């Protein structure tokens, strides 16, 4: 599936759980509980995982280097960083013999290309500071131990978040426009790390998926001009989506990776 098909499936799955108060054959007290069950199942986020994996395959990465393998959700690679260990959503390991599934600190971890993937369709405004701090800290945690490691982050946010209170009545209601300009600037501030001696809190490439789920076919915003035309950010905004869209995420990460580890390091 391409990214637009994925976003449509996310919308359909999310809203079906809310309006029916059902998920995976189970009936819940209300749409909010069913939505929570859907989120816990990882079904939605795994759709984006597969998009990222296939993006790497299309860029020439051998499938056997990708973990979890394409089409599966296990095993994830756990990497021990400076402060804590964490399973990585998608990892590329250039030499299969160097795969370490246990929680160990190893110089081999530096050659792992890692991408973490998140979404927040409701409760975005009240949780964004915590979510952003976590995103910020996870890059720093790994870069402090492995300065040359290439890290990616894919984050899905809605232009208008779903209303949790309406879900209690099995209704799909959208809140007013989210603070899109603020989110763009926040994620741009941790994007495009190139100097391996500094900026450990940054990612080598961030992808911010900004989506309007109110439309029958969800609209993915790929430019500042589109956001301005739809009055989602101020007309005089100086925010930029340069190197922040879904366009060529895998290719950009591989370009940085090969500049650090050699042109034939992943092939």
Description:
The protein is an alpha+beta fold. The chain has one domain. It contains 8 helices and 10 strands. A 6-stranded mixed sheet has the order 3-6-7-8-9-10, with helices on both faces. A two-stranded antiparallel ribbon has the order 1-2. A two-stranded antiparallel ribbon has the order 4-5. β7, α4 and β8 form a beta-alpha-beta unit. α1 packs across α2 and α1 runs antiparallel to α3. The relative contact order is 0.14. The mean pLDDT is 93.
> What structural category arises from helix and sheet content?
alpha+beta
Count of individual helical segments: 8
Query: Please, what is the oligomeric state?
Result: single chain
Low-confidence stretches: none
Overall form:
globular
Order of helices and strands: HEEHHEEEEEHEHHEEHH
**Please, what is the average pLDDT?**
93
Instruction: Give the strand order, joined by hyphens, for the main sheet.
Output: 3-6-7-8-9-10
Percentage of residues in strands: 15-25%
Looking at this protein, list some descriptive labels.
267 residues; alpha+beta; 6-stranded mixed β-sheet; two-stranded antiparallel ribbon; 8 helices; 10 strands; 37% helix; globular
Write the SSE topology:
Elements: H1 3-20, E1 22-23, E2 26-27, H2 31-40, H3 43-58, E3 66-67, E4 77-80, E5 85-88, E6 90-92, E7 113-119, H4 124-145, E8 151-158, H5 164-167, H6 180-188, E9 205-212, E10 219-221, H7 224-229, H8 249-261
Parallel strand pairs: 7-8, 8-9
Antiparallel strand pairs: 1-2, 3-6, 4-5, 6-7, 9-10
Helix pairs in contact: 1-2, 1-3
């Amino acid at each position: 599936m391409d990214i637009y098909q994925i976003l449509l499936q996310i919308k359909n799955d999310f809203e079906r759980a809310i309006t029916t108060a059902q998920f995976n054959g189970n009936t819940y007290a209300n749409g909010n509980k069913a939505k929570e069950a859907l989120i816990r199942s990882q079904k939605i986020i795994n759709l984006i995982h597969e998009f990222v994996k296939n993006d790497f395959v299309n860029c020439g990465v051998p499938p056997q280097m990708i973990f979890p393998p394409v089409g599966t959700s296990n095993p994830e690679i756990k990497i021990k960083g400076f402060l804590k260990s964490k399973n990585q959503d998608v990892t590329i390991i250039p030499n299969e013999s160097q795969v370490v599934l246990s929680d160990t600190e190893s110089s081999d971890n530096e050659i792992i290309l890692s991408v973490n993937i998140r979404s927040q369709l409701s409760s975005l405004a009240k949780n964004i500071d915590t979510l952003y701090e976590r995103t910020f800290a996870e890059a720093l945690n790994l870069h402090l131990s492995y300065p040359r490691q290439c890290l990616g982050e894919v984050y899905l946010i809605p232009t208008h978040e779903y209303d949790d209170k309406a879900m209690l009545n099995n209704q799909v209601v959208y809140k007013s426009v989210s603070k899109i300009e603020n989110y763009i600037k926040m994620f741009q501030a941790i994007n495009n790390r190139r100097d391996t001696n500094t900026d450990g809190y940054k990612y080598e490439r961030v992808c911010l998926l900004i989506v309007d789920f109110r439309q029958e076919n969800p609209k993915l915003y790929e430019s500042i001009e589109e956001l301005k035309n739809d009055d989602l950010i101020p007309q005089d905004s100086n925010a930029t989506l340069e190197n922040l869209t879904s366009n060529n995420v895998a290719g950009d990460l591989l370009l940085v990776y090969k500049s650090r580890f050699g042109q034939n390091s992943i092939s």
